[in-house]
Design brief:
Structural class: alpha/beta
Oligomer: single chain
Order of helices and strands: EEEHEHHEHEEHEEHEHEEEHHEHHHH
Number of strands: 14
Strand order of the largest sheet: 5-4-3-10-11
Distance between the termini: 31 Å
Shape: elongated
């Protein structure tokens, strides 16, 4: 599967700071020191109802991670999946009377267009669950043969008891896990499971559902968590730097995926840091497909909104915060974009040396994009009030905003 075109990232003078970011597993800030190549896996969309602002906010956060790393003169190895076969996708396709693969392709195409418009840096490896199945089947067979998985009416389940580190990602106990498991795609009430939390690795074929050759597993399709594990191990290996996604993925998705990988390899941890973006709400509730309270990037673009303004509206909120989208967010972003573009359009201006350092410091400290925006606001205000004599300053500011924030002025 192909991703989307990469926008050029301008080179900046000097070198950026190492990233210090919140790790869900430890509950505090950790300094990432990836070495010359930073490795990141971000969980992708299930392709229906794409791309809403909750999606955009999440991918914006991990785009910032890449930009901070690139500013430290590192290379970035970025992998993202597409869950292009799963129960919610099949249910939506049936509801809308469309073939499931056509729905997945249509929505994935729309997602690519939105990511391009928002200047999100693309992954080097953009992998669909369907194309990953040949690599998933052997992993499930290995878990089963090692006694870490078991069969139940033709389905294969992972035994969470097989991983001594189970629970280390989310920090939740079983009482807290059970309702989240039921809410987020699990089946804790299914009779016959060894542990109600045990997740599905391989779903045996059902009438009317797509299925693939599972070798000794029989025909069927993969569970959600093992999909990401197979892709991450294939392209990044164990101990990669960041596992990313929305905060609703910490459990069960990232918890289960870590246990799958750690049991398969005997190594710990699966990822060195688990980084999660907050949820975006609308009208007092979390923006979600099930509630239908979605604001779409594509609709905003069709309405004539500059994608740079959409991105600025996202950047105005700290990536870990839960927040609610309002019309005021967009109005503020449109006005900010106009002020910034006016400021950098002039032939000279106040020195940008301290501004660049302020932006780097803010973003290196847990991706504090609101502080980075405030620094640019101050420079633009100085430009408006008194101008300056530095002929190169507007160009430096324009390149810094592009390189570090992904906003083209």
């Amino acid at each position: 599967m192909y991703a989307w075109p990469a926008s050029e990232v301008p080179a900046l003078p000097g070198r950026g700071r190492d990233l210090r970011i919140h790790d869900t597993a430890t509950g505090g800030l950790v300094t990432l020191d990836p070495g010359p190549v930073a490795r990141i896996y971000v969980c992708g969309i299930t392709p229906y109802d794409a791309t809403h602002l909750g999606h955009a906010a999440t991918y914006n956060a991990f785009d910032l991670v890449q930009r901070v790393w690139l500013d430290t003169q590192r290379q970035v190895q970025y992998v993202q999946n597409v869950t292009d076969v799963d129960d919610p996708l099949l249910e939506r396709a049936e509801r809308d009377g469309i073939e499931w693969a056509s729905l997945a392709e249509r929505e994935t195409t729309l997602f690519r267009e939105d990511m391009t418009a928002l200047r999100m840096l693309p992954p080097q490896h953009y992998i669909g669950a369907v194309e990953a199945i040949p690599g998933i089947v052997p992993l499930v067979e290995r878990l089963r043969d090692a006694g870490a998985a078991y069969e139940l009416d033709g389905d294969i389940y992972f035994s969470v008891a097989a991983d001594p580190h189970f629970g280390a990602v989310s920090g939740l106990d079983a009482a807290a896990m059970l309702p989240l498991c039921a809410e987020r795609g699990g089946d804790p009430e299914r009779p016959g499971k060894k542990n109600p939390l045990d997740p599905l690795l391989w779903r045996a074929t059902r009438p009317g559902e797509p299925s693939w050759d599972g070798g000794s597993l029989g025909p069927g399709r993969p569970g959600w968590h093992i999909e990401c594990v197979a892709i991450a191990l294939d392209h990044l290996g164990m101990g990669f730097d960041v596992q990313g996604g929305g905060s609703d993925l910490a459990f069960p998705h990232h918890e289960m995926g870590a246990s799958h990988a750690q049991t398969l390899t005997g190594e710990f941890p699966f990822a060195r840091a688990y980084v999660h973006a907050g949820m975006v709400g609308l009208n007092g509730e979390k923006m979600s497909k099930s509630k239908g309270n979605l604001v779409f990037v594509s609709q905003l673009r069709r309405d004539g909104v500059d994608p740079a303004a959409i991105r600025l509206a996202l950047l105005a909120h700290h990536y870990r915060s839960d927040w609610e989208w309002t019309a005021g967010d967009l109005e503020t972003a449109v006005a900010r974009l106009a002020r910034w573009r006016d400021a950098v359009s002039r032939p000279d201006g106040p020195s940008a040396t301290s501004l660049l350092e302020e932006m780097r410091k803010a973003l290196a400290h847990d991706l504090d994009s609101p502080a980075a925006l405030a620094a640019v606001d101050r420079w633009a205000a100085l430009q408006q009030e008194q101008g300056g004599q530095d002929e190169g300053a507007p160009g430096v500011v324009s390149r810094a905003v592009d390189a570090l924030l992904g906003v083209a002025l």
